[in-house]
């Protein structure tokens, strides 16, 4: 089995602004940086996913500073960058082909937001047959109102998204476990 590919989803400057909303897991960026450093040290594949909005008013519209990668998570020249304009990193991006051509059969997914781009990308990865891990403390969600009108905390939204994934689509692990597994690989 080959080393999993680290897939970093939407870690853009726009996600770090107060306009993005109330969130959980304030340590997520630090954990993502730790994972990225470990993947780079191992010479393992890394994919950076960036959301490019079709709406000119979005924080993630082309030309806006919000679309840029956060400083600590800038891709290196040899790391693959995927640009998407829907939550799922596999839709209209050729990500699956890029992974298959390189013989990648396992993914470690981190980033934002747990209940949107992370969840939709992990669902597709699982459905496509990739062995998928979502790192719970290297992802985060934002508070939101549910369909019944009940305000849900970012922790509740995050936990429900992970619950949606853990039975059929992905294993849910923490940063320490994933780092230990990478070192043992």
Give a structural overview.
- Helix 1 packs parallel to helix 5 (175-184) and helix 3 (114-127) packs parallel to helix 4.
- 32% of the residues lie in helices and 22% in strands.
- The protein has 185 residues and is an alpha/beta fold.
- The strands form two sheets. A six-stranded parallel sheet has the order 3-2-1-4-5-8, sandwiched between helices.
How is this structure best summarized?
With 185 residues, the chain is α/β, with parallel strands linked by helices. The chain has helices spanning 28-42, 95-101, 114-127, 154-166, 175-184, and strands at residues 5-9, 46-51, 80-84, 106-112, 131-140, 144-145, 151-152, 171-173.
Q: Would you give the CATH topology?
A: Rossmann fold
Whole-number total of structural domains: 1
The ordered string of helix (H) and strand (E) elements is: EHEEHEHEEEHEH
The whole-angstrom Rg is 15 Å
Category from helices, strands and their pairing: alpha/beta
What can be said about the biggest beta sheet?
6 strands, parallel
Low-confidence stretches: none
Architecture in CATH?
3-Layer(aba) Sandwich
In spatial order, strands of the major sheet run: 3-2-1-4-5-8
Query: Which CATH class is shown?
Result: Alpha Beta
Annotation, overall tally of beta strands: 8
């Amino acid at each position: 089995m080959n080393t999993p590919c680290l897939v970093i989803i939407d870690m853009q400057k726009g996600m770090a602004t107060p306009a993005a909303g109330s969130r959980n897991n304030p340590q997520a960026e630090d954990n993502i940086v730790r994972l990225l450093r470990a993947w780079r040290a191992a010479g393992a594949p890394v994919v950076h996913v960036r959301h490019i909005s079709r709406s000119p008013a979005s924080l993630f519209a082309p030309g806006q500073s919000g679309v840029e990668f956060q400083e600590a998570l800038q891709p290196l020249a040899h790391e693959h960058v995927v640009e998407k304009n829907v939550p799922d990193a596999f839709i209209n991006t050729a990500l699956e082909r890029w992974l298959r051509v390189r013989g990648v059969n396992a993914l470690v997914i981190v980033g934002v937001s747990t209940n949107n781009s992370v969840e939709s990308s992990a669902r597709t990865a699982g459905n496509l047959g990739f062995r998928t891990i979502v790192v719970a403390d290297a992802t985060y969600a934002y508070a939101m109102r549910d369909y019944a009108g009940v305000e849900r905390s970012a922790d509740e939204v995050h936990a429900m998204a992970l619950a949606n994934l853990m039975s059929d689509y992905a294993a849910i692990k923490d940063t320490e476990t994933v780092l230990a597994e990478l070192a043992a690989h």
